Automatic annotation (TrEMBL):
Pfam families on file: GST_C_2, GST_N_2
Binding site for glutathione: 96, 129-132, 147-148
Domain of life: Bacteria
Site residues (Lowers pKa of active site Cys), renumbered to this chain: 252, 295
Single GO MF annotation: glutathione transferase activity
Domain GST C-terminal positions: 171-298
Name of this chain's protein: Glutathione-dependent reductase
Database matches in PROSITE patterns: GST_CTER
Active site: residue positions: 63 (nucleophile), 194 (proton donor/acceptor)
Source organism of the structure: Neiella marina
Length: 330
């Protein structure tokens, strides 16, 4: 684990000391947008036109943020149009690596050893953390974006004329509500589990734990009244929650001490999680080996033995009856 300073790799853990033991996530820096015609998006430069075969995603199968982009690539039918490389789940002194002897698919574009070399290829003097996902433009040889929330918005519609897929997970009329749910889920749940797990003071941990489980209780109630987070159709908000929920019982309960209760113990959340998992194309994006291996093996300050747990054994393919439940309620 480390970061680049003026293009030079430094191996260092997150600084929580200056924040009373709290983990603060750094904002992503590379924020350009792919668009249908190459016009500029809300931030960054223009010139990134949606084209088949032009873009490449660097992901970790363990990472919940990168996982969002893989889900959108799958559900929007983009597999043949956007290529992917998977980093090793073992993120140690050199950060994310392309070590093919350690479960990485390698870097077919440049044969790089480390992900930080992709960042310095984009900008030789880059300063900042080296995170996944990274969306790379093979034509201009530069990074489009390293912000997952924006990458999924691009994948949601920029390639629609190429794929013919018109599903919209961020429909105009629901945007305000989706944005509100996203903010709540991000602060308390997506990032909340990290705030609990990376806290280095009892107080910082306890605060994160309390907000996390308060938020899960609220969503449990919400999902008793509504099939999905925003109405009766899946939206972006559901996929953003999904990537945390699917990791919860395997990693966050134990490794991050989010152990008030498991997702399996919530009636609605557990059934909802299954419905999302069983959506076409989604189960193939979930890799519990990479997920468990990454967290338990890489965070040596939390788990110095690097022993990876065998369990839990959960059948995410079992029946959930969400469709019937909400049809009956009509
Ligand atoms: N804002 C980013 C966050 C991505 C992120 O933090 N990824 C983690 C993996 S789960 C990472 O690469 N961490 C490496 C580091 O912080 O050094 C996004 O959502 O795309």
């Amino acid at each position: 684990m480390g970061l680049l300073v003026d293009g030079v790799w430094h191996d260092q853990w997150y600084d929580t000391k200056s924040n009373s033991g709290q983990f603060k996530r750094e904002a992503a820096q590379l924020r350009n947008w792919i668009s249908k015609d190459g016009s500029a998006g809300p931030t960054g430069d223009g010139g990134f036109k949606a084209e088949s075969g032009r873009y490449h995603l660097y992901v970790s199968l363990a990472c919940p943020w990168a996982h969002r982009t893989l889900i959108f690539r799958a559900i929007k039918g983009l597999q043949q149009h956007i290529s992917v490389s998977v980093v090793s789940p073992d993120m140690l002194d050199n950060g994310w690596t392309f070590d093919t002897t350690s479960y990485s698919s390698g870097d077919p574009l440049f044969e790089s050893q480390f992900l930080h070399q992709i960042y310095t290829r984009n900008k030789p003097t880059y300063t900042g953390r080296v995170t996944v996902p990274v969306l790379w433009d093979k034509q201009q040889n530069r990074i489009v974006s390293n912000e997952s929330s924006e990458i999924i918005r691009m994948l949601n519609n920029a390639f629609d004329d190429i794929t013919g897929d018109q599903q919209d997970f961020y429909p105009e009329e629901l945007r305000t509500e989706i944005d509100q749910v996203n903010e709540f889920v991000y602060d308390n749940i997506n990032n909340g589990v990290y705030k609990a797990g990376f806290a280095t003071s009892q107080q910082a941990y306890s605060e994160a734990y309390t907000s996390l489980f308060d938020a899960l209780d609220k969503l449990e109630a919400r999902l008793g009244a509504s099939r999905f987070l925003v109405g009766d159709k899946i939206t972006e908000a559901d996929w953003r929650l999904f990537t945390t929920l699917i990791r919860f019982d395997s990693v966050y309960v134990g490794h991050f001490k989010c152990n008030k209760q498991t997702i399996e113990q919530y009636q609605n959340l557990s059934a909802y999680l299954r419905e999302l998992y069983q959506s076409p194309g989604v189960a193939e994006t979930v890799d519990f080996f990479h997920i468990k291996r990454h967290y338990y093996f890489s965070h040596t300050m939390i788990n110095p033995t690097q022993v990876v747990p065998e369990g839990p054994q959960i059948d995410y393919l079992s029946e959930h009856r969400r469709a019937q439940q909400f049809r009956e309620a009509e």
